[in-house]
Write a structure and sequence with these properties.
- By secondary structure, the protein is α/β, with parallel strands linked by helices.
- It has one domain: Ribonuclease Z/Hydroxyacylglutathione hydrolase-like (Metallo-beta-lactamase, Chain A), CATH 3.60.15.10.
- The chain is built from ten helices and 14 strands.
- A hairpin with a 4-residue loop joins strand 1 and strand 2.
- Helix 6 runs antiparallel to helix 7, helix 7 crosses helix 10 and helix 8 packs across helix 10.
- It is globular.
Length: 300
């Protein structure tokens, strides 16, 4: 199959992102969670923003074309440079602004595997593309293995690496005093997720990752997903339960020897499609992705 250049992939995803780039609509939406913690929603991943005496700290930074608009939206919250940036994983819709901020002296933090993947050429089977290494200014400067704790702006912010789930470099962040969690792409609210099998991700890993972090949350936790509206623990459980049911159905069909085409025709996600399918991940693509993940993971 012909491989799309990264620029073509970007254009494709921007088209699927839709109206956020329309001239008559704002590209960035700002949501206030507390006096000093906000969420920015653009076209790519949701951005967490913490402001205060220790400086502006952000979680992810959307796609490359939005870097200046992201910065402008952050400065509307607090008019100062971004001091620190945390990437929840390596995908360009979460790290696309890294080079922009890195050149300004922003300290970039991520899991060890994020820097490794951003430093080397990556091939995505889902997108059928190669992504070249990121520029030096975009690379994380501080990396960690399992956990990292930041003490910023009056908050204890705990970063926790999740075993391969969406990718092999996923990390979630917990604002302990504020009871706010940013889960990156471990959680897509009311949207079928991307599972990056080429980067170590799997459907079962997504389920296991959510089950790992659920005990860290409670009924009052505000949950920021990687994509979709701000949610809570019940929204996260609904996402997990969708994954579990679709996986269980497809596993039965795989055990019966069904091909991917046959599984798609049987519509194992039928009762979720109306709510969860979206332009980039319609039901057929979602079922094929889940099928590939289950087949590649092998029998349990």
């Amino acid at each position: 199959m012909q491989r799309l250049a990264p620029a073509c992939l970007l254009a494709t995803l921007l088209i699927h992102a839709g109206a956020a780039f329309a001239a008559d609509e704002p590209a960035i939406k700002t949501i206030r969670l507390t006096d000093d913690i906000h969420v920015l929603m653009g076209v790519g991943g949701n951005i967490g923003v913490s402001t205060g005496a220790d400086g502006t700290f952000i979680i992810d930074d959307d796609m490359p074309p939005l870097a200046t608009k992201v910065e402008a939206a952050i400065r509307q919250i607090r008019n100062e440079p971004v001091k620190m940036l945390f990437n929840t994983h390596w995908h360009f819709d979460h790290t696309g602004g890294n080079e922009h901020f890195g050149k300004q002296g922003t300290l970039i933090i991520a899991h060890d595997n994020v820097r490794e993947r951003m430093s080397t050429t990556q091939f995505s089977r889902l997108f059928n593309t190669e992504t070249p290494p990121s520029p030096a200014a975009a690379l994380p400067v501080v990396t960690f293995d399992n956990t990292l704790t930041l003490h910023l702006n009056g908050h204890t912010i705990k970063a926790v690496h999740i075993d391969p789930a969406h990718t092999d470099g996923d990390a979630i962040l917990l604002f302990e005093e504020a009871n706010i969690a940013h889960l990156g792409d471990l959680f897509s609210n009311s949207m079928y997720p991307v599972i990056d099998i080429s980067a170590g991700g799997s459907m079962q890993g997504m389920i296991d990752g959510i089950n790992t972090i659920l005990p860290m949350l409670n009924a009052d936790t505000t949950v920021i997903p990687g994509h979709g509206a701000v949610s809570d623990i019940e929204g996260l459980k609904a996402f997990r339960d969708m994954l579990v049911l679709v996986e269980s159905r497809i596993k039965i069909l795989v055990a019966e020897g069904k091909t991917a085409d046959e599984v798609v025709a049987l519509q194992p996600s039928f009762n979720f499609d109306a709510e969860w399918a979206w332009s980039f991940m319609p039901a057929e693509r979602w079922v094929r992705l889940a099928y590939d993940s289950i087949v590649e993971s092998g029998p349990e």
